[in-house]
Amino acid sequence: MELRVFTEPQQGATYDQLLAVAKEAEVLGFGAFFRSDHYVAMGDGDGWPGPTDAWTTLAGLARETSSIRLGTLVTSATFRLPGPLAIIVAQVDAMSGGRVELGLGAGWFEVEHRAYGIPFPTLGERFERLDEQLTVVTGLWATPRGEPFDFAGRHYRLAGSPALPKPVQSPRPPIIVGGAGRVRTPRLAATFAAEYNVPFHRPDATASCFESVRRACEATGRDPGSIVMSAAQVVCCARDDAGLARRAARIGRPVDQLREEGLCGSPAEVVEKLQRFSAIGAGRIYLQILDLDDLDHLRLLGEEVLPAVAG
Known about the structure:
The protein is an alpha/beta fold. It has helices spanning about 15-30, 55-65, 80-95, 110-115, 125-140, 185-190, 205-220, 240-250, 255-260, 265-280, 295-310, and strands spanning about 1-5, 30-35, 70, 75, 100-105, 150, 155-160, 175-180, 195-200, 230-235, 265, 285-290. The strands form 2 sheets. It has an 8-stranded parallel β-barrel, surrounded by 9 helices. Strand 2, helix 2 (about 55-65) and strand 3 form a beta-alpha-beta unit. The protein is globular.
């Protein structure tokens, strides 16, 4: 099982904090550094010093790291037009030497749309737009050099696009589709994604979502084994109960809730919980790190959890 680091900078983080986490994750051997793509803090707190833009952050990290993979979990289709998004991701892929992955979703957090003047269509329209965005982005990257790309959808129209630049990775940067929907999400994952992600669900519910995507793959003639299954889980790990209580308090979560809903406990307990996800077919886990200043937490995970589940 591959372990990746997943951060939530909308809760309040500077670029330097994110850089420190990404560099430490790279040294420790985590497979990737991912971040959310949100503009307003969730839950308690004012989000000070404010959000950082996901793709601006990843462009900087692309030049300041050397081996760790980088991506979003997930970029909202409501935030960007598909043509410019294809350009941005291809450019950051080049800046990183081919280490970028694109998680793309329909968007769901209405508050941030109101706060920054971003249109927030109905759920049905958001999924229509996501479908068209995935078609446009992959189409632009796949179009042979020298040939134009045209697309006439309900929400987006492209005419005579030069379909440049091309990403470094071939045939394209991996695309991640996530969520727990049972109809549209599995179809989009089966059609476009290299990876399907289930965020913050228990193993039994995650297994059911995985099975929905496997069935969608079979319905489209795709080998279900060709798509990576992954999950995202909040993590809180310490060697003793006192340390666990301190870390839980720092992120504003009760220990009992974290034990019930996430990966919480000693390194051995976290490994045991990760093995439950491995047993249902998860090949990757995104460890949601909420206290970005606690690099000792990351080191504990890298030194005592990562070796126990890698490979």
